[in-house]
Design a protein that fits this description.
The complex is a heterodimer of chains A (318) and B (456).
Chain A (H helix, E strand, L loop, with lengths): L1 H13 L6 H44 L2 E2 L7 E2 L3 H8 L1 H32 L4 H16 L2 H12 L4 H8 L16 H27 L2 H9 L4 H12 L1 H16 L3 H6 L11 H11 L3 H29 L1
Antiparallel strand pairs in A: 1-2
Chain B lengths: L1 H26 L17 H6 L4 E7 L4 H17 L3 E7 L2 H13 L6 E3 L7 H6 L7 H7 L7 H4 L3 E2 L10 E2 L6 E9 H6 L8 H13 L13 H14 L2 H9 L9 H15 L12 H9 L5 E5 L3 H8 L3 E4 L10 E5 L3 E3 L6 H11 L2 H9 L16 H16 L2 E2 L6 H15 L5 H20 L1
Parallel strand pairs in B: 1-2, 1-3, 9-11
Antiparallel strand pairs in B: 3-10, 4-5, 6-7, 6-8, 6-9
Classes of the chains: A mainly alpha (318), B alpha/beta (456).
């Protein structure tokens, strides 16, 4: 705002004493254009890199998705038929639907838990806060392969989860979770909850620190308790952080690959296949690069649509 | 500034389309032309390679298993001694890393000279069609390679230059070892239940029942990584389905008749083993590595698997482990006895003659002895070496028996769609999600689709 003001002042002082309103407007427009041109010049290097590394490969993938191509030999034009598999092939269709379950565990549950933890931690002592924050954030920095090995052991028939169930008299629920057609997908998704709740927590704690203390003081003066204070002050104050967390965690859920690949390879049957796994499977195991590219583009479109919707709603509310 | 944004958006698309076009053009360039190599007589091979001067031969493999890896280290040393001007640079990658990146690797400027590949339409096909690997026929004809190994070891690596037919036409690779699928057994556990080694499918069923009744794990294999599905499939099919029928399916050739009742019978057998408690508890969540360790530690009577695990089981169980070819029902014993990962000459290699010399050495009788010393099954037709563990003796005897009866089945991913379903649908059938009849029906349908795809 101040830059615009300075530019306006500069224009005013540089202008001849007698000048028509139209010529003053033209001068301002020229000045603005000069500033814009300089701005674009500054972002040019980043734009070139971004185009070369992101936009061009994306365009290339979109182009490849229209061909039947094994990755080496000349490609054959097939139009949009690679995309048809997404709705005509029940297994591919299922792989695009599985992330819906994952979104619950990768996004909604961690956000709720993160909010609860952030609101609670805001009330504990500083040293306890640091300990809890570190413990909850730790899963974010552990390598995925290690995470997979630990959770594989956790879910085994004789693993800690089933031992705990037997210990509390719920032995009938014990099962090899990752090999169970019904529970394999939720079991994998829970790993997402475990690894993203720390991220949500850190984000929300940072957001709470930006909320003016006077609002909390006012709430206290008005006799609000912890719950009322959370809903009246904390939650509205975290709107931007919530949108940000929602966007990132949903993207994480939709593009997930590593945990599924490492733990179940899409099984049992096709119970845990996801779009990214189908991209990998088609590109490398079946040498159907065009089909893989089509699934990748469809996944990108899905993610962009979901994210745009969230941002649109958030901006409208603002 | 919506107008500006729109203009930029338009420009961005133009730039990206232009860049994408350049990338497409770059990737679409024709691969290097292939000319038939001039092959010297075998007697002159050493002097011709020596005439190449000091060279480094880059060989890339997937042999990470301890025993096989040790064999290749030793073989490379022996090769360097035989050809003193050649220095071997061995690069070993994980199976997935090599197979997934192979097309890029072999078309790049840092392609190795000799490389192991995975045979079948999906992996070998693009490499052949894209002329990234060389046909070995000129060398095989001149140096007598065809006679070194049985057809079951060569056919899966044969393919037409346009990659439309598998199991016939040009030879693109040669393997040093054979991967034979069978059943390991723990001799101590077998004698504990007073049973002898099963010779027929009926004997096998009796021993399994006895083992289960005695509280043992009859079949030590798990399915967290679809391993049980795959190996129980191979074993049950080899036991029940007529070998010629199975062979057509495995190579993706016309002739497999899925209306034969034996296909469904074999599928029901797999389901029976899984449903009626013949596999370890919680087999649905365990993987191949875990059950291999469990079998090596003395748990489990039988272990359906391949000969590549023998070296490790000999280390763990010594003389207490034995090996059988799946005991058959109504036909001669048959099983998959296909090549290990085949070695190929890379088209971009500047040292193709040295590469051919390397494959010549890896598939020689001298190399076979090295493989046998690590208790592995060499691909070359030599009499079984005398210094073998009991299980390795069983393996060599089983392989010789298959050679006599002609029931060593070539294996290749000749039917990519059916093979994918064999695993995913197999898991569903194994857990009773679908019936054996439905499973075999769909497998047959996909096999027919794969055959149709080959024609197009």
């Amino acid at each position: 705002m101040s830059e615009h003001l300075a530019a306006w002042k500069r224009t005013k002082s540089d202008a001849p004493a007698v000048r028509s309103g139209r010529s003053a407007r033209v001068g301002r427009t020229r000045e603005r254009r000069r500033t814009e041109r300089a701005a674009y010049l500054f972002i040019l290097p980043a734009f070139i890199v971004y185009t070369a590394l992101v936009i061009a490969p994306l365009g290339h993938a979109a182009w490849l998705s229209l061909f039947e191509w094994d990755g080496v030999s000349p490609a054959k034009w097939v139009g949009f038929s690679n995309y048809r598999a997404i709705y005509s092939d029940p297994e591919i269709r299922a792989s695009f639907l599985h992330p819906l379950t994952m979104v619950i565990f990768y996004s909604f549950v961690p956000i709720v838990l993160g909010l609860a933890a952030a609101a609670t931690l805001a009330r504990v002592s500083r040293s306890a806060f640091h300990i809890y924050r570190t413990v909850l954030f730790l899963p974010m920095v552990v390598a995925t392969v290690s995470v997979a090995l630990v959770w594989q052991r956790f879910y085994e028939l004789d693993g800690p989860l089933n031992q705990a169930l037997r210990f509390v008299g719920l032995g009938s629920l014990a099962r090899p979770w990752l090999g169970d057609f019904t529970y394999a997908l939720p079991a994998l998704s829970v790993i997402g909850t475990w690894s993203t709740v720390g991220f949500c927590l850190i984000l929300f704690v940072a957001g709470i620190q930006n909320i003016s203390p006077t609002l909390y003081d006012a709430a206290k003066v008005d006799g609000a308790g912890a719950v009322r204070e959370f809903f009246a002050v904390t939650l509205p104050g975290l709107r931007h952080e919530l949108a940000f967390a929602l966007v990132l965690t949903i993207i994480g859920a939709l593009r997930t690959f590593d945990i599924n690949y490492l733990l179940t390879k899409g099984g049992p049957g096709t119970a845990t296949t996801v779009p990214a796994y189908e991209v990998y499977q088609n590109a490398f195991a079946l040498s159907q690069v065009g089909r893989a590219a089509a699934f990748g583009i469809a996944l990108t479109v899905l993610i962009v649509t979901v994210v745009s919707t969230i941002l649109f709603v958030e901006r409208r509310r603002r | 500034m919506p107008g500006l944004h729109q203009r930029w958006r338009a420009r961005t698309w133009i730039v990206s389309i232009a860049v994408a076009g350049c990338v497409v053009l770059a990737t679409g360039t024709a691969s290097s032309s292939v000319t038939a190599p001039s092959v010297p007589p075998h007697s002159q091979l050493k002097s011709k390679v020596a005439a190449l001067g000091k060279i480094t031969l880059t060989v890339e493999d997937v042999e990470q298993q301890v025993a096989r890896s040790k064999a290749y280290d030793l073989l490379n040393k022996q090769f360097e001694k035989l050809y003193p001007n050649v220095k071997i640079k061995r690069v070993t990658k994980g199976y997935s890393a090599l197979i997934t990146g192979e097309k890029l690797l072999l078309s790049s400027s840092h392609a190795p000279d000799v490389v192991q590949i995975n045979y079948g339409y999906s992996d070998q096909g693009p490499l052949v069609k894209g002329k990234l690997i060389q046909s070995l026929d000129p060398y095989a004809k001149a140096w007598g390679w065809y006679k070194r190994q049985p057809a079951s070891n060569l056919d899966p690596i044969r393919m037409t230059p346009a990659a439309t037919k598998l199991g016939t036409s040009n030879l693109w690779g040669m393997a040093g070892t054979v991967d034979l699928i069978g059943i390991y057994y723990n001799k101590d556990l077998l004698s504990k239940i007073g049973a002898s080694v099963p010779k027929t499918a009926a004997d096998f069923a009796t021993v399994l029942d006895k083992s289960k009744a005695a509280g043992q794990v009859p079949l030590m294999i798990a399915d967290g990584d679809q391993n049980a599905t795959l190996f129980l499939w191979y074993v049950a099919m080899a036991m029940v389905v007529p070998p010629a029928n199975l062979q057509h399916f495995l190579l993706g050739q016309p002739g497999a008749n899925f209306s034969l009742p034996q296909w469904v019978a074999a599928a029901k057998l797999i389901r029976h083993w899984a449903a009626d408690g013949y596999l370890p508890n919680g087999y649905e969540g365990l993987d191949q590595g875990q059950t291999a360790k469990m079998f090596g530690s003395g748990q489990g009577l039988f272990r359906p698997s391949g000969t590549w695990e023998n070296g490790e089981f000999v280390q763990d169980l010594g003389n207490k482990v034995g090996f059988i070819v799946p005991p058959p029902e109504g036909h001669a014993a048959a099983t998959v006895a296909g090549p290990g990962q085949p070695w190929c000459i890379v088209t971009k290699s500047k040292n193709q003659l040295a590469g051919a010399a390397y494959i010549d050495f890896i598939t020689s009788d001298a190399a076979a002895k090295v493989f046998a010393n690590v208790q592995d099954l060499a691909a070359t037709k030599i009499p079984a070496p005398s210094k073998l563990s009991p299980s390795a003796k069983d393996i060599y005897a089983g392989y010789a028996g298959l050679a006599r009866s002609g029931t060593g089945l070539s294996w290749s991913i000749g039917t990519p769609k059916a093979y994918t379903y064999l695993n995913s649908g197999g898991q569903e059938m194994l857990r009773g999600k679908i019936t054996a009849e439905d499973y075999i029906k769909k497998l047959g349908d996909l096999y027919a689709e794969d055959l149709k795809d080959q024609q197009s």
